[in-house]
Task: structure prediction
Amino acid sequence: MKNNKPTLEEFCQMYPELLAQAREYAEGTIVDPEEHDDAVESCVCDFMEGARAAMFYKADLQELS
Result:
């Protein structure tokens, strides 16, 4: 039986250091991050969604082999 993939919120709780790195990266790449909180949050969410997908895609491939 396959494991269910965690939601984005669960994934962020599982990997707080990755979430912190994503936020640091986003705040470093967006001009005036305090004025553009929505852009920072969007960047962080995109990064974490990509990380979650990549990790579980790799896990799925290992299950198939």
Residues 21 and 44 are 9 Å apart (CA to CA). The mean pLDDT is 87.
